[in-house]
User: What shape does this take?
Amino acid sequence: MRSNVVEYDLIAPASLPATLALLGENPGRYTPIAGGTELMVALSAGRLAQKSLLSLHKLRELRFIDVLPEMVTIGAGATFTDLRRHAVIAADFPLLAQAASWTGSIANQNRGTLGGNIVNASPAADSPPALLAYDARVTLVSVRGARTIAYTDFHVSYKKTVLAPDELLFSITLPRRFGAHRSYIRKVGTRNAQAISKIALAGVALISEGKIAEIALGAASLREVPTRCTAAEQVLRGQMISSGTIGGLIASARAALAGEARPIDDIRSTAKYRAAVAGNLLEEFLRQLV
Amino acid sequence: MSEINLRINGSTHTVDVPPMKRLLDVLREDLKLTGAKEGCGEGECGSCSVLIAGSGEQAELVNSCLVPVLQAEGVEITTIEGLAPGCLSKTDGAAKLHPIQRCFLEHGGAQCGICTPGMILATHHLLAKHPRPRLEEIQEGLAGNLCRCTGYMRIFEAVQQAAKAAK
Assistant: This one.
């Protein structure tokens, strides 16, 4: 059933301060809408529960990519197209550029925002594995002020985040320290274009003197929230990696990953398939490091 | 209801509509611009594609089924009706088709016609970014536009011809 659009209200404050003031005066009343690639689908399908919406689409304050020597800060309103076209994102954060390129179609990338992808909080979303692997931090703003937290602390449980009712996601910050790291990302969906992932894994690793000095793994659809694979990271960190040790490393990393994975059966895949393929992706990454 | 001014194909239209009404529905129901079609209504099929340009910005392809009409205020919207306005003439319309339209016609890139307005606009957007697109660029540029008739090969040929024609 199509929603009755007359029942819905949408307002578009002209500035970020005006937006935050409205959210502060009426906490929980308004649902922010940016590019609409998620909420408008719900509207068409007759399952958009929120009746009062607040447009972020034209807020220039949210649409930026700031490059500093040590970090890049991406406004929550930057679109996937903005990410794909940015030379520093392509050079320093190829996993994010790659994830942006397989988020929906070109038309969806022109509208969909990085902030929306994060706040919508789907465990299958495309950008979170890359952001997790890159140690992203997120800045949340409200009339009460701003706070910056590790992205790993943002998702609390299925579709639940730490955002307070009067808060907006303002920006995502990535440290520019992965130039010497090896990186890996793979999304497994039903087809190449426009598929929601069954499972996805992004990873970065720093190999130094034959050892895995650093490793970070971010996964989609492995648990109820986008997640770092900390158990697998832990068994890999500090280990020698060579053609002689790789067999044992793969076995222990796969076992650790299987232990922390909590995939589900749903219309896109099965828990068994997801767990098996997550292990295969991790193995593929590790073999590339030798 | 909100009074909203829309710039469409070079003309200004004022509509009094609910602000969350989909741009697609405003185009089709309120303005009788029925070139944009509804296929899936969830941003997967591209048959409702239109081009939108903010001031001083390059036109971007969007799915009009996913755009609340309030967000379309103050931007330049191009629908299939605006690509080559002369082609709507009943006397010499065929001669005034946009080169992309002509290439789709000549190469069998249009069959039932439901996806065609979106395909043409997606091709327009693609060629603006990649004047001589490689096959992979065509495939990616049109990946959000589904066609159930042609099997896509004739569409790819039409796009390649349109790129040559524009040279």
